[in-house]
Write a structure and sequence with these properties.
By secondary structure, the chain is α+β, with helices and mostly antiparallel strands. It is built from nine helices and 19 strands. Helix 1 packs antiparallel against helix 4, helix 1 runs antiparallel to helix 9 and helix 4 packs antiparallel against helix 5.
Length: 450
């Protein structure tokens, strides 16, 4: 009589059957989990790309900013420098820099350690603050300088100590230029030796002076102010560096359109747009099965495709003037390129045309292509109710649900495995007993026993 085989392993058999029992549902969960992860990654990529493009738009076309740029250059850059916004009117202006503004700097010489007590009141112009000297029994000059620098309310001056030949000098420097911003110092109840030192008029290392500029020539209309930064020409910021010697010729400020900077701004717009479009193209790509190219995270998403189409349509203006007139053209795939030579020629004929066409993203005056693009993209990037945020929330909810379903399926797998393991372990035991009994019968009725 043949023996009954029981060579199978109950554990591996139970595992195979449990996996088969849950395989269909596990496949669905795995696929949905992978899709959710890909969607989450795609949303992060899309959100970053949209935000980066909006940031470039704000830099180029935000409040008081335009694609077209102007330059402002002084004939002697050692005397002054300047910068201009696109709204600055081209022209030539003459100025004589009679005096540059300076910050008051004073020193108190012969300083020494002193006994604590009382207080100091220091100030620059109309502002003042106090230093309490009663917090320590004795003070060094360096400790006094540190206390001045760290005093509550001190935003107007800095203190330092200069030591020469064993003698300490307390140096105070105003942080603000202008004749009105002189340094003051007084003591109340302080060490008599210290009080006497501080009561002595300090050495004036640098006087507090206003900037003085004359329009046209050294005898022209005076412009006086505390700062070396002036805005006396619309759209131009001037920064004075050095006073001119008496009798010198005035410096000339030339304001003109800046073709190089304008071209760079236009190229920045083109590059930012192309970068965003490339990112979206990758996300909605159907993939290429022949070459093994994987489809994008939103290959079947009509919403993201609509986003790309809306961007492309925003570049197509209905008027007689278009981006192509200024050298910005698109190929069949929608990628932009810039012809700087054509741009410069077009701006020579129509200096404000490109800015009018591209427009602004300023909150109070959004307009043109930039305004349309930024307004539409905010429907996606708005933190309160934008598409990116809403979709991320939906993905997060799905991932939570998938986790719950996976936990349930894992429990079902464990239950099936335990059931199958018990059944096949029992079956193996029965088969072992049957095999043993069979061997007994074989031995009992064997012909050798006859």
């Amino acid at each position: 009589m043949a023996a009954i085989s029981n060579t199978y392993d109950p554990a591996s058999t139970a595992q195979a059957l449990a996996e088969s029992f849950t395989a269909g549902r596990q496949s669905i969960l795995t696929r949905q989990g992978a899709q959710a992860t890909a969607t989450e990654k795609g949303l992060n990529t899309l959100g970053s790309a949209l935000t980066a493009f909006q940031g470039t738009l704000a830099t180029l076309t935000g409040l008081n900013k335009t694609i077209s740029a102007s330059s402002a250059v002084f004939s002697d850059t050692a005397v002054a420098s300047a910068s201009a916004t696109a709204t600055a009117a081209p022209g030539t202006y003459s100025f004589f820099v009679e005096q540059v503004a300076s910050a008051n700097k004073v020193s108190y010489s012969g300083m020494a350690d002193f006994t604590g007590g009382g207080s100091l009141t220091l100030g620059v112009g109309a502002s003042s603050f106090m230093v309490d000297l009663s917090t320590k029994p004795t003070w060094t000059v360096r400790e006094l300088a540190a206390a001045i620098n760290g005093a509550t309310g001190n935003t107007s001056m800095s203190a330092a100590v200069v030591t020469t030949g064993g003698t300490s000098e307390l140096v105070l420097t105003s942080k603000t230029t202008g004749a009105a911003n002189t340094i003051s110092l007084s003591s109340t109840g302080a060490d008599p030796v210290l009080a006497a030192k501080l009561a002595t008029p300090p050495n004036q290392l640098t006087q507090a002076l206003d900037a003085v500029v004359r329009v046209g020539s050294s005898t022209g209309t005076e412009i006086r102010q505390a700062s070396n930064t002036l805005s006396v020409v619309d759209g131009v910021t001037m920064t004075l560096s050095k006073a001119q010697a008496p009798g010198s010729a005035p410096v000339t400020l030339t304001v003109a359109s800046d073709a190089t900077k304008t071209s760079a701004n236009a190229q920045a717009f083109v590059d930012a747009y192309n970068k965003l479009k490339t990112a979206i193209d990758g996300l909605v790509s159907p993939g290429d099965p022949k070459s093994g190219g994987e489809p994008g995270a939103f290959s079947g998403d009509s919403g993201v495709r609509a986003l790309r189409d809306r961007m492309i349509s925003a570049l197509r203006t209905a008027g007689a003037t278009s981006l192509a007139n200024f050298g910005i053209t698109a190929n069949r795939q929608g990628t932009l390129t810039l012809d700087s030579t054509r741009l410069t020629k077009a701006l020579a004929l129509n200096p404000t045309g490109l800015d009018t066409l591209i427009g602004s993203t300023a909150t109070t005056g959004a307009s043109g292509i930039a305004g349309q693009l930024d307004g539409y993209l905010k429907l996606w990037t708005n933190s309160a109710n934008g598409q990116i945020g809403s979709r991320k929330n939906a993905v997060s909810e799905l991932q939570v649900d998938l986790t719950v379903r996976q936990t349930t399926l894992d429990k079902q797998y464990d239950s099936a495995y335990s059931r199958y393991l018990a059944q096949f372990t029992q079956l193996q035991s029965v088969q072992s007993n049957m095999s043993y009994n069979t061997s007994l019968f074989d031995a009992l009725f064997s012909s050798s026993k006859d």
